[in-house]
Amino acid sequence: MTSRKAFLGVLCICAVALSACGTDDNAKSTGGDNDAGVGTDTSAAGADAGAADAGASSSGGGSADAGSGSADAGSGAADAGGSKMPPNTAPSAETKKLWALITDYAKWTEFNETKKMPQSKSHQNMFVHAYYNKVVADFIKTGKKPPLPEGSILVKANFKTKDAPKPAALTVMHKLKSGKWYWLKAMGNGNVFLGPDGKTPAEGTTVKTCIGCHTNMAPSGNDLVATHVFGK
Ligand code: HEC
């Protein structure tokens, strides 16, 4: 095994751990969820099929205090036979601002590359749709090569099954003024997933799992974007 492969392997394990996949798609919520998966509702619980994932996460990620993040989800127990609430936490102020910018993401333009809803080996075998905002659309029209401009947002909606009514997770990249991407992995209610250590929220400009894998998987010179090559 080459070290690069080993590295990728580790990343993938991390990705699985990171997923611990909070899904609110089966949440026994009392309605009011919006289909797009973004909302301010509180349908947090619903740890449906997360059972297997969550288990993998705690063994693989060896999270020290899985307890704190999991909070046992009371209601989730009924759903998933005692599975824990996938580890997640309330969004930071910065993430809340980003959340407000993506509420209508499902109406944005979708990358042609994901229109058939491919299954993502990198994103926990979820079925994915990836969308971009107007800043990116305008950038694409220029035919320029990356970097993408400030304000660019890419949203990937990750579904457990092809016909799941709502995404289990949203993964988001937002280009900041600094030129860095702000990375986010959140549930449909805006809560942020915790990383493989069971502590660090997957939000901000330094989320290692996101950056590490995108650095490897994205074509070079493409600003860490994997789905679509810009300025061809
Ligand atoms: C194990 C590798 C891996 C990890 C970890 C990973 N990604 Fe990705 N990501 C990919 C690949 C490959 C694609 C494109 C193909 C696909 O969807 O699987 C992608 C696609 C995306 C897209 C659509 C735009 C694009 O760049 O193609 C977004 C947004 C995204 N990822 C965000 C994230 C965020 C946020 C994290 C961290 C929470 C993350 N990713 C972690 C590999 C990864």
Protein architecture, described:
Strands 2, 3, 4, 5, 6, 7 and 9 form a 7-stranded antiparallel beta sheet that branches. Strands 1-8 form a two-stranded antiparallel ribbon. It is built from 7 helices and 9 strands; from the N terminus they run H-H-H-H-E-H-E-E-E-H-E-E-E-E-E-H. The chain has one domain (3-217). The protein starts with a helix and ends in a 15-residue tail after the last helix. The chain is globular. The protein is an alpha+beta fold. Strand 6 and strand 7 (181-186) form a beta hairpin. Bound molecules: heme C. Heme C (HEC) is lined by residues 11-12, 15, 120, 122-123, 128, 130, 154, 156, 171-173, 183-185, 202, 207, 209-210, 213-214, 217, 225-227.
Which tags fit this structure?
232 residues, alpha+beta, 7-stranded antiparallel sheet, two-stranded antiparallel ribbon, 29% helix, globular, binds heme C
How confident overall, as mean pLDDT? 75
Shape: globular
What kind of sheet is the major sheet?
7 strands, antiparallel
Which range does the strand content fall in? 15-25%
Number of domains: 1
Order of helices and strands: HHHHEHEEEHEEEEEH
Q: What percent of the residues sit in helical stretches (DSSP H or I)?
A: 25-40%
SS content category: alpha+beta
| Low confidence ranges | 5-37, 39-83
Q: Ions, cofactors, ligands: which are bound?
A: heme C
How many individual helices? Answer: 7
Could you outline the blueprint of secondary structure elements for this entry?
Layout: H1 3-19, H2 50-61, H3 66-70, H4 75-80, E1 88-89, H5 93-101, E2 109-110, E3 119-120, E4 126-132, H6 134-142, E5 153-159, E6 169-175, E7 181-186, E8 192-193, E9 203-204, H7 208-217
Antiparallel strand pairs: 1-8, 2-4, 3-4, 4-5, 5-6, 6-7, 7-9
Helix pairs in contact: 1-2, 1-7
The structure holds heme C (HEC).
